[in-house]
Amino acid sequence: MRILTRSVLVLTLAGVAGACTGDDTPSTQPDATTGPTALPTVDVPVEFVPGEWTYENHDVTVSFTWDSGELTVENGSGEELGDPGLYAVTQTQQRVDADIAGSAPVADGGSATLTAAFPAGLELADVGLVVIEFGEQNWGALAPVVAEV
Question: How many structural domains comprise the chain?
């Protein structure tokens, strides 16, 4: 009787195991031979306002205009910001600091309008990035202003 029970149990398990491997439904697992699917994109014409940049982060808004040198800072961060500083990174990856007359800390809720002057030899066409600093902290690159189309 024991042998018969074991034989029936082994045959039952073998049948169940065989049924599990014989499933012909497609796998939902990604195939390793196919690469990731590209996201759909749309080409949209974009134009930038030459010589104008903007920055918005942590309730701090900055704008800079190359021709006039006007640098405006609005601070809603909840804390005082250190002295504003500005530098350009040229297309040859050189850092060029601007001289900002009257630069002083910007209080929370306050704003400042300053004039940033880059060395005379630096042309707008040479600029790759414009970066804002507050005190010793680099806050990142300003974005070029997108023209209204």
Answer: 1
